[in-house]
Amino acid sequence: MAKQDKAVGIERYSRPGVDVVAVRGARVTEYFLTVSPRGRDLEAMFPAAAEALRETGAAVVSQEIFGVSNEDGAGAQMLGDFFGAVTWPVTWIEEGSEEESARAAIQIWAVAGADVTPVEWRGEVVGSVFENGHARYCRLGGLAPEDAEAGNMQQARAVLELMEKGLIAAGMNFSNVIRTWFYNHRMLDWYGDFNSIRTQFFAERGVFDGLVPASTGVGGRNGAGAALMAECLACVPLTEGVEAKAVISPLQCPAPTYGSSFSRAVELATPEMRRLYVSGTASISPDGRSIYVGDVERQVQRTMEVVEAILKSRDMAWADVTRAIAYYKQAADCPLFGDPPLGGHCKGLELPEFPVALVKNDICRDDLLFEIELDAIKPI
Q1: Fewer CB in 10 Å around end: N or C, the chain?
Q2: Last residue of some domain: 205, 239, 273?
């Protein structure tokens, strides 16, 4: 049964294995699909996602696939079988797909009422662009280095340069980026080096003179065998009243305090709505230390309290969440959230339902067991 608030233009509904949030603006309707497997039938996610997408009549902007193997291109073949020609960026993270208790998910962002134009680099689709009357959006994804045999730092630099090339192809640059995602293979072996490369690159491009993007940085093996795969979201205003700004976390210090170049959250305001992009968030104290080490339940609770404080600081709540990903270091810990949609299953917390993908990825510190990122939208 659809649940709709006509005054604000947001509709939420579910079908087996798929949660859909439709955000209706004056010109464009955006759809956020979160698809989870029923039991161990991971392959069933693909037809379920494709059918739900067809019902919307929307064009895909971006797609993420977690916890499903693409060995020998079998996954990509399945993607094409159900979705047809793929003309949008796909970020495919295989981390955890080999585990018996693996968790998997598909997320899709699609729009109706706007033309979605692919962004290409050297003959490959690396992104999508669309406009909604107030702003022009560019989503890049599946960004991997050409040379997966190079050193990790060289690969990281190559991915950031590829991101920049994709932005330029879309008529943008790094000053327009509001959100990034980085999936580092064997993250704990080189996360410090990655942070150094990102900080250096951001300094060269003048990012610190403007908005430092929100970001997620977690572990993730990819089929390309690369050290890194990345995504980003950028926005250019088309009318007055469009502004992006960093949002602080009331319960945590700024990430640059301990060497990570990202904002805790970024809010994008337009004449129609406010969008809040909350970075990957974990159980970190106000002075930057990991807390509740070894206790995954308390780390989950603390993390959710931190995120809730960010939401409340922007006059938002869990009910405004349109998309979320919960990353667990150990796949066996995922049941702490219950089966999606989340509902009130998170131990120690009473939460309304919101769409969340539960996946297995390494976290940026060895003593962190959980991290969550999310987007929330509130019409004006």
Answers
A1: N
A2: 239
**Angle, alpha carbons 146-130-180 (nearest 5°):** 45
Are 264 and 375 part of one and the same domain?
Answer: yes
Pairwise pLDDT comparison (340 vs 312), residue with the higher score? 312
Domain hosting 88: range is: 1-113
User: Nearest 5°: phi and psi at 271?
Assistant: -60, -20
Mean pLDDT of 327-338: 84
Extract the runs of DSSP E, i.e. beta strands, from 51-99. Answer: 59-66, 90-93
Number of domains comprising the chain = 3
The answer to whether 104 and 45 are in contact (CB under 8 A) is yes
> Does residue 120 lie within any of the structural domains?
yes
Q: What are phi and psi of 288, to 5 degrees?
A: 90, 5
Whether residue 96 is found in the same domain as residue 164:
no
Q: How far apart are the first and last CA of the chain?
A: 26
